[in-house]
Amino acid sequence: MPREWPRAVTALAVSLLFLVPLVWVFSASLRLPGLPPPRVIEWLPAAPAWSNYSRLFELLPFGRYLVNSLIVAGLAVPLTLLTASWAGFAMAGLDARRQEGLVVLSVALLMVPVTALWLMRYVLFKWLGLLDSFAALVAPAVMGSSPLFVLLYYWTFRRIPGELFASAAVDGAGVIAQWRRVAMPLAGPTTIAVSILTFLMYWSDFIHPLLYLKSEALYTLPVGLQQLQQLDRTNWPLLMAACVVFTAPTVLLFLIVQRYFLQDSPLSGLNA
């Protein structure tokens, strides 16, 4: 339809805006070692150096770093979904006065700079014996990872009519059953969004592994990128190859879940 053309052109322009940098990084990763990045967009070098990727894994244990990052993100995402949704569900069940107080508290916590927590967390993790382990990296997920994720679930759950929970209670469903059978199925888009944000948070985390990990065998991919840069700051093709390895899982994740964002929200037919 003619009226759909502006929307399609806009979507294509936005897609190209994000796609071109990815293509440029991939193309730069195939240049001969030691060459600087091209000054103009080079879609494919004349002699692609695919050996840059194998060389990357020879210089550093990038395979181990990749597995470590997947382990940390794989543990943090489901734990965050569980605790953040529980907290949001509990907030939505309170009276209006307490809800307002907790929302203000959550927003205030979002304004606290993360640097103010580093020393306190380090001392706490040392006392608990969590240093130099993945537990120190995943520990924030026990508290929902971020107040933002709790607020996202809270804003979703408060839109669900109370009659649905009342009906479930009449059928004998307890609080956990109401959360599992009523609330979570209706919060699918929120769960997808929180999953992606949580994955990106832990996947790209550089400071916390650097602070809490001492064993090189436990290093994650962001630390490995920093090590590679320190080895040779001028070998741009190798650095770009490492960036491709680092970015590929996030792009793959987006391609897998993007279809869920095109679906109508289960709450669209419910009264706010």
Based on the model shown, name its key terms.
272 residues; mainly alpha; 13 helices
Task: Characterise the protein shown here.
With 272 residues, the chain is mainly α. Helices cover 69% and strands 0% of the residues. It contains 13 helices and no strands. The protein has helices at residues 5-28, 51-59, 62-92, 96-110, 115-128, 134-138, 147-157, 162-170, 175-186, 188-203, 207-212, 221-231, 236-261. The longest helix has 31 residues, at 62-92. It starts with a helix and ends in an 11-residue tail after the last helix. The model has no long low-confidence stretch (mean pLDDT 85).
| N to C succession of SSEs | HHHHHHHHHHHHH
How is the biggest beta sheet arranged? none
Secondary structure tally: strands: 0
Contiguous runs where pLDDT drops below 50 for at least 5 residues: none
Strand-residue proportion:
under 5%
The end-to-end span amounts to 33 Å
Helix content: 55-70%
The whole-number mean of residue pLDDT values reads 85
Radius of gyration: 23 Å
In one word, what is the shape? globular
Number of helices: 13
- Classification by helices and strands: mainly alpha
